[in-house]
Design brief:
5 strands; single chain; 9 helices
Length: about 280
C-alpha cells in the first residue's frame, strides 16, 4: 500500500517550500522552511482555482462554510454566557431574598422540633433570628429618638428637620378652628400609634406661611406625605374617603401607604386593632 504514495520533497505542488521540520528530520534532502515567512504566509491555504475557466465556486463555498462555523460558535458561546448570567442572577436573588426573609420564633421552634434539618442549618437560622431581633430593636430605638409613635405639634422652624430626619413623615397642615381638621387629627393620632415606621406631626397653617406657599396648600385639612424629605402625595380634605366625616381610619391609612408613607404591611379591608 505504501508503494502507491510518495512523500513530497517540498519542490512541487501547492505546499512547496512549506515542508514541516519533522519531515526534514526524516528526509534531510527536503528543503528547510524559510525562517522569513510572515504570519500571513503561514496561514492555511484556501482551495484555489484549478484552471482558468473555474468559477471559484469551491473557494466561495469554503469561505461560507468557515464563516458560518465561526458565527455559530460565537452564537453558541454568547447563548451559554447569557444563560450562565441569568442563572447566576436568579440564584443570587434567591439567596438575597432568603437572607432578608423574616424568621419568626414560631418557625424557629418548628425547625428545632423537626428531624429534617441538621445542626449547622439550624444554627444558621438561630443566628439569623438573633440578628433580625437586634436589627428590629436598633430600629425601634432610632424611631423613638426621632419621635415616632406619637402625634405632635411642630413649629415652622422644625419642619425641614422633621421631614428629612425620618425616611417617612406625614404632616397635617391644619387650622385650629376647622372641625374637619379635628376629625383628621383623631385618625392621624391612631395611625401614629399603630404605624411606628412613620413620623406623624401637625403644623398650624396660619403659623407656617412660607411652607404653605411653597407647597401650594389652599384647602384644609391637608395631609402631606414625605419620603426622605420629598413630598410624594397629599390628602386634601376628605377627598377619596367614603362616608365623608364618618370614614374609617384604615381608609386614610391605606391612602398614605399607597404614597409610600407607611412601612408596615396591611390591606385596605383589614380589621386593624387601633390603639
Amino acid at each position: 500500500m505504501a508503494d502507491k504514495f510518495k512523500m513530497s520533497n517540498g519542490q512541487h505542488g501547492m505546499l512547496r517550500g512549506q515542508a514541516p521540520d519533522a519531515f526534514q528530520k526524516v528526509d534531510p534532502s527536503m528543503p528547510k522552511r524559510s525562517c522569513h515567512d510572515t504570519d500571513f504566509e503561514r496561514m492555511p491555504v484556501k482551495p484555489q482555482k484549478t484552471h482558468a475557466n473555474s468559477t471559484g465556486f469551491t473557494s466561495q463555498v469554503a469561505d461560507i462554510a468557515t464563516t458560518g462555523i465561526m458565527e455559530q460558535a460565537l452564537v453558541d458561546r454568547l447563548n451559554t454566557t447569557m444563560q450562565k448570567g441569568m442563572e447566576d442572577g436568579y440564584n443570587a436573588r434567591l439567596e438575597e431574598e432568603d437572607e432578608d426573609r423574616h424568621i419568626s420564633q414560631e418557625e424557629l421552634d418548628r425547625q428545632e422540633d423537626s428531624k429534617n434539618i441538621d445542626d449547622d442549618d439550624l444554627e444558621v437560622l438561630r443566628a439569623r433570628r438573633r440578628q433580625q431581633m437586634k436589627d428590629a430593636h436598633d430600629k425601634k430605638l432610632k424611631y423613638q429618638a426621632l419621635g415616632h409613635g406619637s402625634y405632635d405639634d411642630i413649629e415652622e422652624e422644625a419642619f425641614l428637620k422633621t421631614v428629612t430626619s425620618s425616611e417617612r413623615a406625614v404632616v397635617h397642615f391644619h387650622h385650629k378652628m376647622f372641625e374637619k381638621c379635628k376629625v383628621m387629627d383623631m385618625h392621624l393620632g391612631k395611625c401614629a400609634r399603630k404605624f411606628f415606621g412613620t413620623r406623624f406631626v401637625r403644623l398650624d397653617a396660619e403659623k407656617a406661611p412660607f411652607f404653605v406657599e411653597k407647597l401650594k396648600i389652599r384647602t384644609l385639612p391637608c395631609v402631606v406625605v414625605f419620603n426622605d424629605g420629598v413630598a410624594v402625595g397629599r390628602q386634601v380634605g376628605f377627598e377619596g374617603l367614603s362616608m365623608g366625616d364618618e370614614f374609617e381610619t384604615v381608609q386614610l391609612a391605606w391612602r398614605i401607604k399607597e404614597w409610600g408613607g407607611l412601612e408596615e404591611d396591611f390591606g385596605p379591608e383589614d380589621d386593624i386593632q387601633w390603639v
